[in-house]
Each structure stands twice: as structure tokens, then as C-alpha cells.
Amino acid sequence: MSVLDLPDLALDLILELLPPSGLSSMAKVCSSLRERCVSDHLWEKHLITKWGKVLGPAAHRDWRCYISSSCHLDSPNNRIGHHPLGFDKIISLIRSISSGDEKRKRYAASSLPLDSTMSFYLSLETGRFWFPAQVYNRENGHVGFMLSCYDAELSYDTHTDTFQARYAPHGRKAVAVEKGVTWERLRAAPIDISPHHLHVSDSLNELKPGDHIEIQWRRNKAFPYGWWYGVVGHLESCDGNLNHCHCHLNEMVVLEFNQYTVGSRWRRTMINKRDHREEGNEEEGFYGGIRKLSCKEEIAMWTRLWPSSILE
């Protein structure tokens, strides 16, 4: 019995169990398997499994712009089965994903239909496509960015299983580049908004002492926002006794950043929740929108990133 004699459902179930390299190998067998093995529904599973946690709406938008702007999109030579090298050659190049041949991997990704999920996967895998995401503790945990998360463009390096990050320029400073960014320091942006735009908070009236939050902050108005971790504190007029606390009823909210030492100008700030807008100055920076954190996984991530010593 040939594998092609199997019912379609059984064959699809087998193909769904194959890793990317296995799908590429099966696609070499014949034209029928080729059509099945490059289908979007098979590669979408691999895309979500490996890349789902770091790809947000902005990454998918950028991918659509990337493929629509390619001068090769409408070229007959850019479609499977029409490449002058032949499909077998293309598949052998695709298989080099696991062989470590960077030059061949890049060529394989460029030989696929640009609008396919397989092409998206390979463009990410080879680092050809720089995608937007956010990086915790940017610039190798520089003390000036501890317990923050900033937007960046990222390119994957399959040899090291890490990323290269390009951060937006700060004022007159050049674009900052960081290499060796690990998977655990990445996340898809939880809010689909430009880092230069103020987030309109929708949970200010719910905030109460002990709540975990992220707040936008930037050094000056020429800089992009980063997201900084903090907790809601008690007003000075409150003794902290939860049985008598009415802080949540006050129009002012205390935000504490306990990674900084007591007395530090960065340790504590207050915002008006009834008329919230960007607040601050050129000396202490500008505070923007607030996200209330309800997800235990998000809170645990910040806890894991907590510095080993208190910051000044």
C-alpha cells in the first residue's frame, strides 16, 4: 500500500505530526505530497507552537506589508513549482533549516510563495524578517532599564537560538542594537499601540493598594515609551490597615517601584485617576498610561526579573 492510498483524513493526521524538516522531506516524494506539505494549515501549527508567544498583531501587519512590498510577489519564479532550480532543489534547501547552512536557508525562504504560512515561518526562522515585539530589561539588563519592557525589532539567529534587537533611537542617540536576546526576555506587545502614543487606561478606578501594574514612562517627549513594573501603594494619610483603608476611593493613586531604594526619586509617584494624562517633567521623566495586571503569568515574569540588589 502506498501512503497516498490512505484516506485523506488519515494522511493529514500523519502530516500534522511531522516537524518542519519532516514536512520538507515528505514534500520531495511527489507532486501530490508536495501540495499537501506546503499547505497553510500544517505550517500554522508550527508557527503558533514556536512563534505564537512573541508574534502580536503588529508583527502580522508588518508581515503583510513585507510581502506586499516585495518586488518578487507577482513574479512567476516566486511560486512553488515554477522555480528554475525545480521543487526538489527547493526542498533540499528548506531542509537545511536543521543543517545550519545559513546561505541556503535564506535562499529557501526566498524561493517560496511570499504569502504562504510556510514562507512566514522560514522568514522568521532564517532571520530575514525583522518583526516587532517587546524586550524585558533591554540592553543586557542595563541598570537604567531594570524591570522595564521596550519595543524593538527582532531578528532570529538559529545558530544561537537567540535574537538581535534593534531599539528605536532615543532623541539624538543612534539606534541601539543588542545581540543574544533570549526567548524568555521577549513578549508580544500586550497592547497594540505605538510606543510613541499614550495608552488610554480603562482600569484606573479599579486600582487599589497591592495591585500589580505596568505604566508607560519615557525620559523626555522625544523618547518612546517603555512599560515599567510597579505596585499600587497606600496614601501617606493611610496606615496600611486594609480594614480601614479607603485609598481606592481617593482620586489620587500612589504607584511604588520597590526595585529602588527608599528615598530614591524613582521609588514613588502619584497620578490623578480622574483626569489622567501624561504627567511629569524633564528631570524625572513622563508617566503615561497604566495597565492593571491580572494574569498570574505576567506578574510571575516580573518577579523572575527582579534585580539581585536594590537600585539607587
From TrEMBL:
Against SUPFAM superfamilies, the record matches this protein to: F-box domain
> Where's the F-box domain?
1-46
What InterPro entries is this protein classified in? Answer: F-box-like_dom_sf, F-box_dom
A Pfam family matched in the record: F-box-like
Protein name per the record? F-box protein At2g32560 isoform X2
